[in-house]
Amino acid sequence: MLCQLSKATTRIRLKRQKAVPPHCWLWSLALLAAFTLKDVSCADLAISIPNNPGLDDGASYRLDYRPPFGYPEPNTTIASRDIGDEIQFSRALPGTKYNFWLYYTNFTHHDWLTWTVTITTAPDPPSNLSVQVRSGKNAIILWSPPTQGSYTAFKIKVLGLSEASSSYNRTFQVNDNTFQHSVKELTPGATYQVQAYTIYDGKESVAYTSRNFTTSRRTRHKELLDIKILREPNTPGKFIVWFRNETTLLVLWQPPYPAGIYTHYKVSIEPPDANDSVLYVEKEGEPPGPAQAAFKGLVPGRAYNISVQTMSEDEISLPTTAQYRTVPLRPLNVTFDRDFISSNSFRVLWEAPKGVSEFDKYQVSVATTRRQSTVPRSNEPVAFFDFRDIAEPGKTFNVIVKTVSGKVTSWPATGDVTLRPLPVRNLRSINDDKTNTMVITWEADPASTQDEYRIVYHELETFNGDTSTLTTDRTRFTLESLLPGRNYSLSVQAVSKKMESNETSIFVVTRPSSPIIEDLKSIRMGLNISWKSDVNSKQEQYEVLYSRNGTSEVRTLITKESRLVIKNLQPGAGYELKVFAVSHDLRSEPHAYFQAVYPNPPRNMTIETVRSNSVLVHWSPPESGEFTEYSIRYRTDSEQQWVRLPSVRSTEADITDMTKGEKYTIQVNTVSFGVESPMPQEVNTTVPPNPVSNIIQLVDSRNITLEWPKPEGRVESYILKWWPSDNPGRVQTKNVSENKSADDLSTVRVLIGELMPGVQYKFDIQTTSYGILSGTTSLYPRTMPLIQSDVVVANGEKEDERDTITLSYTPTPQSSSKFDIYRFSLGDAEIRDKEKLANDTDRKVTFTGLVPGRLYNITVWTVSGGVASLPIQRQDRLYPEPITQLHATNITDTEISLRWDLPKGEYNDFDIAYLTADNLLAQNMTTRNEITISDLRPHRNYTFTVVVRSGTESSVLRSSSPLSASFTTNEAVPGRVERFHPTDVQPSEINFEWSLPSSEANGVIRQFAIAYTNVNNLTDAGMQDFDSEESFGLIKNLKPGETYVFKIQAKTAIGFGPEREYRQTMPILAPPRPATQVVPTEVYRSSSTIQIRFRKNYFSDQNGQVRMYTIIVAEDDAKNASGLEMPSWLDVQSYSVWLPYQAIDPYYPFENRSVEDFTIGTENCDNHKIGYCNGPLKSGTTYRVKVRAFTGPDKFTDTAYSFPIQTEMLSSPGKQRLEVLVKDLRVLF
């Protein structure tokens, strides 16, 4: 029996060899070897070439190997494009060592050894496996070596199959050639399976041969002999192919009906091409369900007979058989022969599938139609089929090609083909002379489909001329890139998905570009002309037309050059020239130009001076020729730029506004249509310079600076002469060069020094240019006298001195300066200056009737002939007058408005000073006679002082005598309470302490008020007043556990001040203890229960709302019962006298009533586990009861114990029933 194992896979990675040239194609190759045992041992290999591009038609591989058994055969050459990603190698011998060599050949290398490898194929399993059972514990396993291939050892595996031998699992390796092995220590009567493997060169067979056997059981002579009789199992049901592809068939079958007894299915396939042609499938489930098996490694398109049988140990059923085909391989490389594609037909070509595949024919169809055509299979590698009579030119069709084996078709191979569209019609061309472009139009054939048009043009008559291809989706196109002067062949094709129609062609000629006249020069009795053409334009020759101005005669010259000289023309005449380019008998647009010939020059030029800055020029006309006017121009020697005057037709011209001091060159020439004669007439003349004017005298005591604007025109130097007016014989001279005397371009400044102070001088000034003198300019300046006196200023603060200034001075010596008088001024136009003679002995001057507080500028000079010296200057200010009255016009709690009278004289502002509440001096400045002082403290006395100020710190500040007055501010609301906090907090009341500083009283405090609000209940609010002398206060009737906001304010006669806030959550305490006589009362009792009554008003909510109640029961009330955790009823059962215990978990009974009746002892506590239990009381026993109230989980208070209550003694059943009846009646009423 053959059992399939999972495949073993071996990969060998081959790296690039460093000696290979870099331009060769190299790959890392993986050799994938898979060995699968079949009826005849064999092995399949796949040589993987992952990166083989297959693009080089000349590249190929040659595979060689030893020993020479396999397919493809040794030394087989395979083209690179035919390989794909791997080379399939099959029919290898099992258990054999193979050596492989792969050679690569392309255009540059021949038989280059790409890689070599040695592999060992897996051996076949042993054959003829049998087992001889010798006894219940021993057996001998026998086998034969594989029928094909080599081996080195065998592996025997023995597995226990029955329950008695399930733990038996042993493996043995046999290296000798005895082909048998003894197995010992077996279990009598147990079933085992033997698996035999072959080992060759360390490699184990991927399949094994197996056999089951059962050891004999020892029997006694009295035991019966068990005989097992086997019968043939039932035949399986129908089966189908659930999945199929090129190499796989997955079959699915139904179990036999009835199922019968069997353990396996045997599934086989014929021809036996599968990796495993016989499969054994275990039965699954009871009753069994459908089963399946897959056959892999089949030949594509081949028909196979598949049979399924059931097996029970060595018995096998009759087969269920069926025939199925695998999917054939698809065709390859669906292409279309462009030579056979027309407007209504095409030819499709395809290649036969690569590899082994069985099929009968090809099926060819178009996706849009249901018609299918068949092509018989042939031995040719390429097949084809012609589609004809298709009436849709330009449309795209999807062609599907399949291989057919029986009725099974392969996966489709597809390709798209587009029929050739019909040619366009009515192709025309139009030349647009305005834009120098060509427009072509055409019409599409209405029976054709196309998505665009292809326009192709190329230049004729020239090798490698202008050629271009354009596309458009419209039937009108503007060709803007045609070169001028060319002959073109132009064609238009309709295009549908890159399939072109036949061409429709025409021939077109383009006009050459217009030449451009580049240079047109006048020459003596002629013209020299040159032009240039567009580099992209072609022309055969040029035509030049010219005509004389005023005549109708036109002359034509033809040339192939781009320049021309025209001679023997009339001097001074104007000519119009036109230049044409000619190509293919088409003339370009002309380029026209007008040019005149040089005229003859004028004669006999003379010049006449008319005014100081103008001349009159005369000349004679030329001897012959034509001219239109005369041109006059001139320039100076310092400026090379010519100045052109308006043209004239007379023989004289007046040149005016000539620059003084310049030397001029004047030219006269004849002009004809803007062209001047090359030989003009010219003369030279010089204009006298301008004298100086507008002299500014900058006079000092010992020097004079003369400053004047530079005269218009040219000046080379200045000549200055001067002497004292009373002594003409002391003449002095100074020459000043113009370019050295000026500090800038527009002003001349000359310093004359070493003069006597207070003396008058005479000055004469002239200018020179090119040796010519200007007129003389004279002036009579006087030097300034000196003042060397000391001046003292005196004024007083007293009332009679506030309008007087007295000046005292010392004399200036006459030897140092000549002067006549002293002059004194206060800088006020209303106060006259005072003067004193130079020889006056009284050295004091007094000014009276002045303005108090005014600043006076005191100036003193010496004066000589009306010329004053530099002044001595002083500044002094008179003291201002003080104010006489100070009043308060408005008084509030924080402000006081003051007003006072205005003082006489001048002043700048008023200074108001006072002491603040912090005893700091505050000063305020104002320019008005009123001010409002703010930010004062209410109910305070302030003293204000006002001082009049005149001047500033930087301009002689004077202050008057001060005036003071006192005022008191009004009351205001008090400030915020400084300290506000509780001194004692109880659940329903709180005691506060507060304080208000006297500085924040702002008046007389009348009272304090505290307001409070419950943050969770705004209706719970109130206010309480306190006397002004109090600093403590108690707030009552608050709710325990609630949060309150407390706000305190102080109050004066004006009102309340701002609030100070405090937030407090009231504490919750245990309820107040009730009076001793407040105890629960007895309502009813029985032998095991006591009913008590208590009321809601037993406990007060003063320390917090009572939320829960519980009952404390005590037989021994002397024991402590004040703890939070009380014993339960179960806890006291072990005592003969019960300690105080809690009868129930806390609860709240007063939801809708104020009285609660509670019965003690009503529960059965046998199964009670959690919390407190209200268990029965003992009969005939005295108890005392108290009630516990809770305001919180750990805050509680108890009442006093009740009066003693004794339970009833147990009695007869009738009496007990009566007690129950009475109890029920009480409950009802």
From TrEMBL:
Keywords from the UniProt entry: Signal
SMART domains on file: FN3 (SM00060)
Enzyme's top EC category: hydrolase
InterPro entries from the UniProt entry: FN3_dom, FN3_sf, Ig-like_fold, PTPRJ_TM, RTP_Phos/Ushers
Enzyme Commission (EC) number: 3.1.3.48
Entry superkingdom: Eukaryota
Signal peptide: 1-42
PROSITE patterns reported in the protein's UniProt record: FN3 (PS50853)
UniProt domain Fibronectin type-III: residue ranges: 125-218, 235-330, 423-514, 601-690, 691-787, 882-972, 973-1073
PANTHER family reported for this sequence: CYTOKINE RECEPTOR
Entry protein name: protein-tyrosine-phosphatase
Gene: Ptp10D
